[in-house]
Amino acid sequence: MLAKLTSKNQLTLPKAAVEAAGNAEYFEVEARAGQLVLTPVRIQRADAVRAKLAALELGDEDLAAAVAWARQAGPTRRAARVAEPRARYDTKPPHPGKSAPRRKP
Fold first, then answer.
1. Exposed/middle/buried for residue 53 (C-beta within 10 Å: 0-12, 13-18, 19+)
2. CB of 45 within 8 A of CB of 26?
3. Considering only CA atoms, which of 35, 40, 38, 13 is closest in space to residue 24?
4. 3 belongs to a structural domain
5. Could you tell me if 7 and 1 are in contact, meaning their C-beta atoms sit under 8 angstroms apart?
6. Exposed end of the chain (fewer CB within 10 Å): N or C?
7. In the chain, where does DSSP find H-type helix?
8. Would 62 be classed as within a structural domain?
9. Buried b (16+ CB within 10 A) or exposed e, 59-93
10. How many domains does the chain have?
11. pLDDT at residue number 104
12. pTM exceeding 0.70
């Protein structure tokens, strides 16, 4: 089977190869002695969360503190909320001689 690498480093895998891999969406890529080895992997949301926490160097103590903070209902938590500014809408009529833009249905 032949696959072409595009100028944007994208590789299209032949349908037969994808079906043989179980129609995986993600692959672990390993370069081994001049060859690329693709291993199908199943990404779960928990894996993505764990990876993000590891990248941020957050441990169990940090998570426990965050959960405790989120569960408290005291005034300190309410005061810590940041108020978002209200949206301002332009109420001026359109420029004379120009019609207002139409919205798509």
1. middle
2. no
3. 40
4. no
5. no
6. C
7. 15-20, 45-55, 60-71, 75-79
8. yes
9. eeeeeeeeeeeeeeeeeeeeeeeeeeeeeeeeeee
10. 1
11. 66
12. no
Q: Is residue 41 within 8 Å of 28, Cβ to Cβ?
A: yes
Contact in structure between 54 and 62 (CB atoms under 8 Å) = no
What's the token pair of residue 88? 């301002």
- Residues 7-48 have pLDDT tens digits of 999 999 899 988 888 888 888 999 999 999 999 988 777 877
Q: Is residue 8 part of a domain?
A: no
Task: Show the domain range for 59.
Answer: 45-75
Is the residue at 88 inside a domain?
A: no
Q: Are 65 and 71 in contact (CB under 8 A)?
A: no
Query: What is the spatial distance between Cα 37 and Cα 28, in angstroms, rounded to a whole number?
Result: 8
pLDDT at 70: 87
Separation of alpha carbons 77 and 69, rounded Å: 8
Whether the per-residue pLDDT at 99 is higher than 70: the answer is: no
Q: What angle do CA 56, 54, 39 make, to 5 degrees?
A: 130
CA angle 18, 24, 27 (to 5 degrees): 95
Q: d(Cα 1, Cα 84) in Å, to the nearest integer?
A: 56
